[in-house]
């Protein structure tokens, strides 16, 4: 089991790094660009992104890193080796700040935007999506970056 720890940690570094980059680009570029479009254009583009992103590669990185996080937390509790607390902390940060935030805040707004039409969609876009969704995306950016840092430090000590 101890021999697997570095491999699990390395995979978690890659997965959390991919997620940090994805969420970062949404925070600093994509959402700002979409907000400059007429609301109907921004809504259409965001709905298209939300449809396309649900693919095997994204889901493997996103959910795979969540599974690795769970595994690293369990291994840290059992193994208790050097760096294990960092790996467990990285897993916890990823699970709460990336996975849970996505499921509790971002996905419901994505679903609401997809279901809305006409003026209701425009109002949702302006009043909740460009503020709330973006704010929670910033949280995911910081969380996945923090998880990445903790996984790197834990990997270096494993």
TrEMBL record:
InterPro entries: Anthrone_oxy (IPR013901). It holds the Pfam family Anthrone_oxy. The chain crosses the membrane at residues 7-33, 53-78, 85-105, 133-156. Keywords: Membrane, Transmembrane, Transmembrane helix. This is DUF1772 domain-containing protein.
